[in-house]
Amino acid sequence: MRKVALITGVTGQDGAYLAQLLLDKGYTVHGLKRRSSSFNTGRIEHIYQDPHDPDPRLILHYGDLTDATNLIRVVQEVQPDEIYNLAAQSHVQVSFETPEYTANADGIGTLRLLEAIRILGLQQKTRFYQASTSELYGLVQETPQRETTPFYPRSPYAAAKLYAYWIVVNYREAYGIHASNGILFNHESPLRGETFVTRKISRAVAAIKLGHQDKLYLGNLDAKRDWGHAREYVKGMWLMTQQDKGDDYVLATGVTTPVRDFVTWAFEDTGVTLEWRGQGVDERGFDAATGRCLVEVDPRYFRPTEVELLLGDPTKAQEKLGWTHQTSVRDLAAEMVREDLKVMQTSPVMKEA
Ligand code: NDP
Ligand code: GDR
To answer: Superkingdom of this entry's organism (predicted)?
Structure first.
């Protein structure tokens, strides 16, 4: 019998990599996708099958984490062995503008799924993975951050994810559900959403190289992140649901990098050496060879409260799951720039954009 998984957020970066991984492992994969006025399945097109296929392995259902009846119906229909709850309004800065929606989707949405499991009597059958986040650590309490580090959320997004984290722990303890929190540090890839900083940088570097863009505007260049590759992190999610018991694990690389260095490396991969001058809002990045200004700080990208430093300690995941990251942040930057150059050189629409 094939195992059956339900992935919420299947159209997102992690959803696409996880769906691929589970299909490769022989699962039947059900995905929840939102109704949108334009196509939102670009990241999973290569694995999507004709719905008329007599034995489809990837099946999509319309749904939304803010709609409890819909979630109960989908879970009832699918009877999943594993649920991966990846759906979320996942942009930290956007959460300051849409705090109530973010709380509803990211916080209460998680509760709705757990309740669906309980209402349908699936506590013993369905294992649950929750996409928790290093944003929970927020204001630095200790580094490196590990499973026992106290949380101090610094955004509506992080506060919503804090609720989700604890409701997962509570349903595990109260109802015996096999439920796990993956406290994942930032992970990126060529499939990363275009408004997150690494992809914004890799796209801009490619566009500047091809002469489609003059300059890159960024916010806080001093923020430090522990960046890994998304393809490797979804393996950790799967490993968590394969354990005898649900538990909470940090997935991270153990290396932290300021945004500024990521920018420098991304340009280096196209042969441009950046020279940084100035400080704070006046800091600029110049092409050392031509003296042309390529990077400027724009305070509109500053956040009302910032998370300055994330650095994870993945020891527990290494010891208990046998999980470890492989791709370095420099290789990640190179891969992202390379892929964006490819896309822009081959797609006329992207070229125009
Ligand atoms: P993305 O933003 O790429 O994907 C989010 C997914 O959630 C998309 O499929 C999106 O649909 C869907 N979604 C958003 N709102 C709703 C809703 N109300 N109902 C149903 N679906 C919804 O995120 P990632 O793939 O990068 O991240 C996956 C999860 O992991 C998220 O929960 C994120 O918060 C969390 N996380 C991510 C980290 C990272 O570094 N990437 C680190 C730690 C945690 P649509 O495509 O239509 O927009
Ligand atoms: P983050 O990712 O907030 O860590 O959340 P993001 O890439 O948005 O920001 C990382 C850091 O870069 C700084 N920054 C900028 N960020 C953006 N988006 N745009 C800019 O122009 C810019 N300039 C500087 C930010 O201030 C920040 O410090 C991601 C998401 O995937 C969450 O869902 C996830 O939970 C966490 O990672 C772990």
So the answer is: Bacteria
